[in-house]
């Protein structure tokens, strides 16, 4: 870009929407942060650091908060995780760093690592337009990155650490991928995601938006760059394959979340059914409640013990007022001009473990909106004849370097792991950035 754009001022979440999505975990005040940081034992062989996919030196950054060195604390975070601010809000810390805290051994509350990390990163960004490092002299090498999500952002930042030019291409008008479009506002506000990306842009990373990369364009990018990183994420959410699925009022969880975050969604039905039981499904259900739906319920083919959502997300949804219907399948979506109901059947587990419909159990439920959240399709068709090995729709990579079966191509994030956490995508991108730098250096 010839004239840098401040992303987080381009398209903030409308104030009336943001007011409905207050912080799930409010930030620490200064005194509370110091008190909490002094609870830390600063373990030498810290299990919290091992549990973090990006291996942030947790004892180090927390100790710097305790001593009042907030700039040093933020730097310790950013040295390991360039998206440390986003991850402090979006990470499932209950099953990662905080879940591994040694305080559990003493039947004490774990250190609130995520809130301390956010405290340090908020202070860093509030201090002004700063960058975590100064890129070295240009190496003369350049890399094209497909997709502007966490994996590509982390990879681009790592490339800049090595003086390698990084240009990101994305089909959408804003960067961030799921960080910007797919994570609930009460976890990660759009403006905060974009503020963090502003910092990465100031490292010299270039962005091209509204650019769909198909196999023909990919060939051109390959020819014009020394390496290519694929961080394209996953594709569209799966459909049910039942009658009425194309009626107005049927949407999917990602479109629902992106809609209210960007202001495109201004109306919600009084009764909403969310189909699925993953973390994104719960984010959509909670959003529907906060947007004003009078009744929101989730429909899942199996029971709570099989749901893919984390247990703490499930408990949060119940507190929001979401209801759950277990062992239920959707046989049709009803309506003429738009959705007015769903046809539901009860399911039971057969002797071989499969699900079968219970005879004469079908019934109708009145709803005005149906939200699909039953997993995403893969997104590798555009790779064409690039020579990458694909297994079950995922790009196969060397996990240590991110390199694919075509030496010039590297990849990371959901297109390689099938959909994990933001922090996993950041770790993938960081490793790939180092892998690309080593490969180009070897050449």
Task: Please characterize this protein's 3D structure.
This protein is an alpha/beta fold and 443 residues long. It has three domains: 25-126, Alpha-helical ferredoxin (Fumarate Reductase Iron-sulfur Protein, Chain B, domain 2); 142-235 and 377-442, FAD/NAD(P)-binding domain, CATH 3.50.50.60; 250-372, FAD/NAD(P)-binding domain, CATH 3.50.50.60. It has helices spanning 15-18, 30-37, 47-51, 58-66, 70-80, 84-90, 113-126, 150-161, 178-181, 190-201, 215-224, 253-262, 279-290, 311-320, 414-417, 422-442; strands at residues 142-146, 165-169, 206-208, 227-230, 250-252, 271-275, 295-299, 323-325, 328-335, 339-349, 355-357, 363-365, 369-372, 390-391, 394-395, 409-411. It starts with 14 loop residues before the first helix and ends with a helix.
Query: So how many helices?
Result: 16
Give the overall shape, derived from the CA principal axes: globular
Instruction: Write down the overall mean pLDDT.
Output: 94
CATH superfamily assignment of the largest domain?
FAD/NAD(P)-binding domain
Strand content: 15-25%
Separation, N- and C-terminal Cα atoms? 29 Å
Number of separate strands: 16
Q: Architecture of the largest domain, CATH level 2?
A: 3-Layer(bba) Sandwich
Q: From the alpha carbons, calculate the radius of gyration and give it in angstroms.
A: 23 Å
Number of domains: 3
Largest sheet geometry: 5 strands, parallel
Strand order of the largest sheet: 3-2-1-4-16
CATH class of the largest domain: Alpha Beta
């Amino acid at each position: 870009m010839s004239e840098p754009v401040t992303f987080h001022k381009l398209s903030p979440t409308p104030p009336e929407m943001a007011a409905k999505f207050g912080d799930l975990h409010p930030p620490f005040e200064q005194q509370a942060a110091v008190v909490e940081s002094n609870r830390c034992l600063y373990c030498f062989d810290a299990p919290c650091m091992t549990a973090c996919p990006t291996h942030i030196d947790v004892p180090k950054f927390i100790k710097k908060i305790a001593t009042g060195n907030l700039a040093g604390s933020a730097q310790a975070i950013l040295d390991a995780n360039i998206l440390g601010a986003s991850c402090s809000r979006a990470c499932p810390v209950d099953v990662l760093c905080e879940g591994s805290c040694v305080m559990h051994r003493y039947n004490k509350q774990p250190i609130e690592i995520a809130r301390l990390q956010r405290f340090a990163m908020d202070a860093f960004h509030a201090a002004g337009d700063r960058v975590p490092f100064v890129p070295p002299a240009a190496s003369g090498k350049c890399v094209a990155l497909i997709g502007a999500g966490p994996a590509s952002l982390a990879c681009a930042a790592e490339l800049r650490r090595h003086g390698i030019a990084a240009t990101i291409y994305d089909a959408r008008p804003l960067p961030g991928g799921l960080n910007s479009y797919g994570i609930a506002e009460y976890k990660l506000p759009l403006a905060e995601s974009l503020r963090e990306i502003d910092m990465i842009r100031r490292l010299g990373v270039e962005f091209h938006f509204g650019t769909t990369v198909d196999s023909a364009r990919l060939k051109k990018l390959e020819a014009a760059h020394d390496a290519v990183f694929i961080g394209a994420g996953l594709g569209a959410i799966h459909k049910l394959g039942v009658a009425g699925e194309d009626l107005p009022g049927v949407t999917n969880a990602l479109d629902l979340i992106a809609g209210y975050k960007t202001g495109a969604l201004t109306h919600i039905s009084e009764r909403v059914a969310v189909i699925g039981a993953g973390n994104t499904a719960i984010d959509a259900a909670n959003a529907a409640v906060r947007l004003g739906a009078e009744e929101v319920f989730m429909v899942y083919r199996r029971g709570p013990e099989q749901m893919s959502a984390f247990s703490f997300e499930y408990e949060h949804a119940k507190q929001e007022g979401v209801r759950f219907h277990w062992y239920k399948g959707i046989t049709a979506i009803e309506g003429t001009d738009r959705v007015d109901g769903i046809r539901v059947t009860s399911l039971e587990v057969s002797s071989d473990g499969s699900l079968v419909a219970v005879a004469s159990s079908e019934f109708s439920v009145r709803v005005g909106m149906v939200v699909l959240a039953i997993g995403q399709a893969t997104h590798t068709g555009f790779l064409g004849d690039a020579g990458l090995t694909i297994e079950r729709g995922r790009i196969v990579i060397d996990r240590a370097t991110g390199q694919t079966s075509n030496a010039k191509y590297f990849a990371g994030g959901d297109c390689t792991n099938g959909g994990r956490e933001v922090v996993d995508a950041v770790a993938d991108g960081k490793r790939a950035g180092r892998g690309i730098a080593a490969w180009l250096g070897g050449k």
